[in-house]
Amino acid sequence: MPARAQKTKNPHAVALGALGGGAKGSSKGGKARAAKLSAKELSDQGRKAVQARWKKARGAKTK
């Protein structure tokens, strides 16, 4: 049985992963997007998300 070749990481891919910021090179999209929003826009989006979650939860109970 032949020996397995050692896997090496692509250095370019590693560099791109590190550009994301955050822990372990994760994406920073949500945080960066939220930082650009005004307080009212952020509040409106949060309210819309909460209403969607409650609507979904209520819908699941009545079925």
Strand and helix layout:
Blueprint: H1 11-18, H2 29-36, H3 39-62
Description:
This protein is 63% helix and 0% strand. It has 63 residues and is mainly α. It has a domain of 26 residues. The mean pLDDT is 80.
- List segments where confidence is low: pLDDT < 50 over at least 5 consecutive residues: none
Helices, by number, come to: 3
Structural class: mainly alpha
Order of helices and strands: HHH
Strand percentage lies at under 5%
Q: Give the terminus-to-terminus CA distance.
A: 57 Å
Shape: elongated
- Could you give the count of β-strands? 0
Percent in helix: 55-70%
Radius of gyration: 21 Å
State the major sheet: none
Mean pLDDT across every amino acid position: 80
Q: Keyphrases for this structure?
A:
single chain, 63 residues, 3 helices
In short:
The chain is 63% helix and 0% strand. With 63 residues, the chain is mainly alpha-helical. It has a domain of 26 residues.
